[in-house]
Specification:
About 45% of the residues lie in helices and about 10% in strands. The chain has about 100 residues and is mostly helical. It has a two-stranded antiparallel sheet. β1 and β2 (about 10) form a beta hairpin. It starts with a strand and ends in a 9-residue tail after the last helix.
């Protein structure tokens, strides 16, 4: 289905995740974050870049894996992406919801 994110129309699934990563850009990410009351900082962008890199390598994403990565500690991850950090961060990063998320 189509969704207007800021000024950009993108294709999303029923949960709001982009179905085509090629439609993702920083403006789309900022607008998705804003919809969830998140203002992206440099730290957010570092985490988003890590998640996208893992997705490109087809590495499964999980809270445990992120903790072990050393990219971010879990407390900070929850602070940056409240309300389910893995679900929220992957949605903003334009990648599919990890299988480890309910």
């Amino acid at each position: 289905m189509k969704k207007l994110v800021g000024q950009t129309e993108v294709n999303v699934n029923e949960e709001g995740y982009l179905t085509d990563f090629n439609e993702w850009n920083k403006n789309v990410a900022e607008n998705l974050a804003e919809e969830h009351d998140i203002k992206l900082t440099e730290r957010h962008w570092e985490v988003i870049a890590y998640l996208q890199g893992q997705h490109q390598k087809e590495e499964p994403l999980s809270i445990r894996g992120i903790k072990k990565s050393g990219v971010i500690d879990i407390k900070e991850f929850y602070a940056l992406f409240p309300g389910g950090p893995l679900k929220m961060s992957t949605l903003i990063a334009g990648i599919p919801k990890p299988k480890s998320c309910i």
